[in-house]
Amino acid sequence: MGIGRFVYTPILPLMVEDLGMTKGAAGLLASANFAGYLAGALLAVTPTVRGSRRTWLIIALTVSSLTTGAMAFASSDVAFLALRFAGGVASAFVLVFASALVLDRLGAAGRSGLSAVHFAGVGAGIALSAVIVSSLVAWGGGWRLLWLASGLVSLVALGIVAGLIPDRVEPATGMVSRASRGNRRLAALVVAYGLFGFGYVITATFLVAIVRGSDQVRPLAPWVWLVVGLTAAPSVALWTWVGEKIGIGRAFAAACGMEAVGVAASVLWLAPAGILLAAALLGGTFMGLTALGLMGARRLTHGDPRSTFAVMTAAFGFGQIVGPTFAGVVYDATGTFLVPSLTAVGALSVGALLAIVGSPQTS
Q: Are 259 and 197 in contact (CB under 8 A)?
């Protein structure tokens, strides 16, 4: 999932240079993926999606791998948009079904602390994709080869996933429990999660493009996405521990604050130290925020949490759809990501306040 969702960021500058894409077009392509993410989150909770959660997880990971690799063979804007949309649908299914399946099994086994290992996979995938892209670029590989290689690596990982998740009898996916109506704490958490989606995604989409566009920090381009992945992998364990100590709401707010500093640094401090700080704070918070949000929502839901996870993921997806297109259009008009990034800082700040209101305050 880390490859399927996020390898677009380090490949994007090469596509822009080779295809002559505007930042607006690049943002629209990113938004297509996030629109698919929103659609997938809503579809995952419908009664038509029945059967084993494991089966749906494997199907979704397969679609994610195939659509990633197929980007290498696309030539038209319509094909690009369709493939990224389908990949987004698959990513949402992965998050909803994997989180529901893994967190439930860990809870039943009394090993909930291992949830950090589950969420660390995304950071590991980002770091691996950074190594793939930088290595192939160093050998003269173009953007098509990068997409193909990423898809093939994802297929290999898919086989490992299928072997590591035992095939057990699962609750019917059509039977989904829901949080009680009028749950204001959950509503506040959902809005905070959506603002987080908008707040992180502009930097997550355009960070490598920002680096490559500045002569002062361009040499960091092969490394900046690797820093994001390496800091993301252990971040969930860190933020889970913080959540246990001070409460999920306060931990979510603290992570939003740190991420806001990183987003601001990406446009206000265009020096090696500032860009590396931005990468580290982005990687060190966004998966932690994802985990804290879903864990907080799980504690506000009785029974199968898939419906609540879908609502959370939908809010997150909506924020992601708006962010890249907004940033790309503003960049094309102004030549800078300053206004979009500072808007994202504001969204993260509001999200932090809502999270304190919405999330469970006990461990």
A: no
Spatial distance between the Cα atoms of 1 and 261, rounded to a whole number of angstroms: 26
Phi-psi map region of 54: left, alpha, beta (phi>0 left; psi -120 to 50 alpha): alpha
Task: Report the Cα–Cα distance between both ends of the chain, in Å, rounded.
Answer: 28
Distance CA 35, CA 252 (A): 25
The chain-wide mean pLDDT, for the chain, equals 88
For residue 141, give the DSSP letter.
Answer: -
The candidate with the shortest Cα–Cα distance to 103, out of 253, 268, 240, 222, is 240
At 27, the amino acid letter reads G
**Residue 139's CB: how many other CB atoms inside 10 A?**
7
Q: Which residues contact 189 (CB under 8 A, 6 or more apart)?
A: 293, 296, 297, 300, 312, 354, 355, 358, 359
* Cβ partners under 8 Å of residue 170, min gap 6: 52, 53, 54, 101
Q: What is the mean pLDDT of residues 109-136?
A: 88
Q: Which two tokens stand for residue 19?
A: 């295809």
Average pLDDT over residues 126-147: 93
pTM score of the predicted model: 0.85
